[in-house]
Specification:
CATH topology of the largest domain in chain B: Alpha-Beta Plaits
Oligomer: heterodimer
Strand content of chain A: 15-25%
Number of strands of chain A: 13
Low-confidence stretches of chain B: 227-232
Strand content of chain B: 15-25%
Number of strands of chain B: 15
Radius of gyration of chain A: 30 Å
CATH class of the largest domain in chain B: Alpha Beta
Number of helices of chain A: 11
Largest sheet of chain A: 5 strands, antiparallel
Shape of chain A: elongated
Low-confidence stretches of chain A: none
Helix content of chain B: 25-40%
Shape of chain B: elongated
Radius of gyration of chain B: 28 Å
Distance between the termini of chain B: 77 Å
CATH topology of the largest domain in chain A: SH3 type barrels
Structural class of chain A: alpha+beta
Structural class of chain B: alpha+beta
Number of domains of chain B: 4
Number of domains of chain A: 3
Number of helices of chain B: 10
Largest interface: A-B, 120 and 117 residues
Order of helices and strands of chain A: HEHHEEHHHEHEEEEEHEHEEHEH
CATH architecture of the largest domain in chain B: 2-Layer Sandwich
Mean pLDDT of chain A: 87
Chain lengths: 306, 321
């Protein structure tokens, strides 16, 4: 703290020997202890985002290294929020369920309060949001992404070396997008499948993420566009997931009372078979025969008949 | 010796105390998310901080008389009047939280979030690009708008709802109370007039909402959603499944109590409160579930499968290619 204040107030680079005499706590130390403590303090300041700059005041003797902190790089610039922005900032501190990120969001809002912004939670009725991160590997991958540290981890039993570019929270699950060094290509990893033992294999900032279309890479996670159609008989108000995707059609066979035929588009037969089976006797496949047969096999396996 | 977290906090605490003269101890601790005892420890560190030189007049001063009365007065620290910039971690944690809120509310709230995020990013400079994204399932903006209106005006609405567990469309009459984002999905907490109790509806499953204009009586606060509620259901039964490779994906989507690899497959234990839900999962996974314990937990799925097979037979629909 005192080191930072000293460097912040200085108009020029402060040499190490001078720092040692003026900064509280350094004066009584032996040479070796001072070197160690000073280096550690300087690294810690940088790690918490304090921009400690190295340079020399004397262009003729550039070896005389000194340190300083530029106030404009240290301080949060003036920032003002209108009433509705202030309101959402107040709510935002309550969103994270994961303690690490909740603390970080709270620390950010505390800095805004220190800068004179007064977020006011509790004025919005009937609204609450939460983001969770239960995945064991989440915290280390988040840190690595924020600090740009390349990492290695096991993914479904395979070793990967990855430069983490970005993370994305989609429908309750976290994904990591990065450059897979082994495969020399970008890859998307589901964080739930990353083994918790994530190891850093480089220094912070040791790679620069390219300007990639992260959303484009993640679009491979969305369901594929349907390219086939099936005709299903659905009982009454059952199986809304299938009904909403389809439209009513005439049936070629006489259906039991309460059933209506729907034409439903699908992308992967396996997914459709699972969905139809899950509905049990409430959904029947009329066409195509291939899908009907697959459903028949799965139901027969469950019913214990062959 | 001050820890890294402590020093990092002091860079915000010192300007905060100058912007809030005579701040209350407890309120200040709450702002920084720490215990009062920790705040006092922070203030004790400040006694040793100040201008280089270390003379008594150079150090920050905390008024001890005010402290006794529960208030903090800090002086001699004018050179630290503004907080340190955000760390990338702080900025991203806050921005992700804001974006999640923005996806939930009405369009006006979404605009407030967008402009607040833009201001934060401007203040932070360009060194930290948007490395964290959020995509949520919140249903249609129009449905959320009508629900928000009903919450604000305290009125009754009719829903068309595609139920999840029982896979059935129903038309409940409800009194909307709260919209909540949990695990990437938007939920409506509402009082169900038909059930005479609180119910939770997933907003992307609400196919339609029709305002009735009727005022809703005051029902108090809906029960707080507790992520651990599954563990507390009194009538939930423990079921163990052994999953083949093809069915392992389900462990990422349902709450599992224990997992254990076995030679046959992955053994998972879960709590089941709704037999209809378990029946649907077993039917969906088919031969991917190698074993069910206790075996009678699978009986309802077996009966459903037989019933479905009988229907195919009665309609004369062949099941062989």
């Amino acid at each position: 703290m005192n080191l930072a204040i000293c460097l912040l107030l200085a108009r020029r680079y402060v040499e190490k020997s001078h720092i040692r005499t003026v900064v509280e706590g350094y004066a009584g130390l032996s040479d070796a202890a001072f070197e160690r403590t000073f280096e550690r303090d300087k690294d810690e300041l940088r790690a918490m985002g304090v921009p400690v700059e190295t340079g020399s005041n004397n262009p003729l003797f550039p070896d005389e290294v000194g340190y300083r902190i530029r106030r404009e790089e240290f301080e949060l610039p003036p920032i003002e929020f209108n009433a509705s922005e202030t309101l959402v900032l107040g709510l935002a501190t309550r969103v994270w369920e994961s303690a690490t990120q909740a603390d970080q969001a709270l620390a950010a809002v505390a800095k805004l309060r220190a800068a004179g912004v007064e977020p006011d939670p509790g004025r919005v009725e009937g609204l609450s949001a939460s983001v969770s991160a239960k995945e064991p590997a989440f915290d280390t991958l988040w840190q690595a992404t924020v600090e740009r540290v390349p990492v290695s981890f096991d993914y479904r039993g395979e070793g990967r070396r990855v430069e983490p570019w970005a993370m994305s929270y989609r429908r309750g699950a976290w994904y990591l997008v990065g450059f897979d060094r082994g495969r020399q290509d970008s890859r998307v990893f589901k964080v739930a499948r990353v083994d918790a033992a994530v190891t850093p294999i480089g220094r912070p900032g040791s790679f620069q993420p390219p300007k990639v279309d992260v959303e484009g890479l993640l679009s491979s996670l969305e369901p594929a566009a349907p390219d086939a159609e099936a005709v299903l008989a659905i009982r009454g108000d059952r199986a809304p997931g299938l009904r909403r995707r389809g439209h009513r059609v005439a049936s070629s066979v006489a259906l039991p009372p309460g059933f209506v035929a729907y034409q439903v588009a699908y992308a992967r037969q396996g997914d459709l078979v699972g969905e139809v089976c899950a509905a049990g006797p409430d959904v029947l496949v009329l066409d195509p025969l291939e899908v009907r047969a697959a459903v028949g096999r799965q139901l027969a396996g469950l019913a214990g008949v062959s | 010796m001050a820890s890294k977290e402590q020093v990092s906090r002091l860079f915000a605490l010192v300007p905060y105390l100058q912007a809030h003269p005579a701040a209350e101890l407890a309120a200040t601790a709450a702002v920084f998310g720490i215990a009062v005892r920790q705040l006092v420890a922070d203030l004790n560190v400040l006694w040793f901080c100040g201008l280089p030189g270390g003379l008594p007049g150079d150090l920050m001063e905390v008024d001890m008389d005010s402290m006794e009365a529960g208030r903090i007065r800090l002086s001699n620290a004018e050179y630290l009047a503004r907080p340190l910039r955000f760390t990338p971690d702080e900025a991203l944690s806050l921005v992700v939280a804001l974006r999640t809120l923005g996806d939930l509310g009405d369009p006006a709230l979404g605009d407030a979030v967008a402009s607040a995020v833009a201001k934060l990013e401007r203040a932070q400079g360009t060194q930290h690009p948007a490395t964290i994204g959020v995509a949520t399932a919140t249903g249609s903006a129009e449905i959320r708008r009508v629900l928000n209106e009903a919450i604000t005006n305290k009125t009754v609405v009719d829903l068309t709802y595609d139920g999840l567990a029982r896979a059935e469309t129903t038309t409940p009459t409800v009194e909307p109370s709260r919209l909540a984002m949990r695990d990437g999905y938007a939920y409506l907490d509402a009082w169900s007039v038909d059930r005479n109790d609180w119910r939770v509806y997933r907003v992307d499953r609400i196919a339609d909402v029709r305002p009735t204009g009727r005022p809703a009586p005051d029902r108090g606060e809906p029960p707080r959603f507790d992520p651990g509620w599954l563990d507390q259901l009194p009538d939930a039964a423990e079921v163990t499944l052994v999953l083949a490779e093809s069915a392992r994906w389900i462990t990422e989507y349902i709450p599992i109590r224990h997992t254990q690899p076995t030679p046959q497959g992955l053994q998972v234990t879960l709590l089941v409160s709704d037999p209809a839900w378990l029946r649907a999962q077993l039917l969906r996974l088919g031969s991917g579930v190698l074993r069910v314990e206790p075996p009678q937990a699978a009986r309802s799925a077996q009966e459903s499968a037989r019933e479905a097979l009988a229907l195919y037979q009665s309609l004369g629909l062949a099941l062989q290619e």
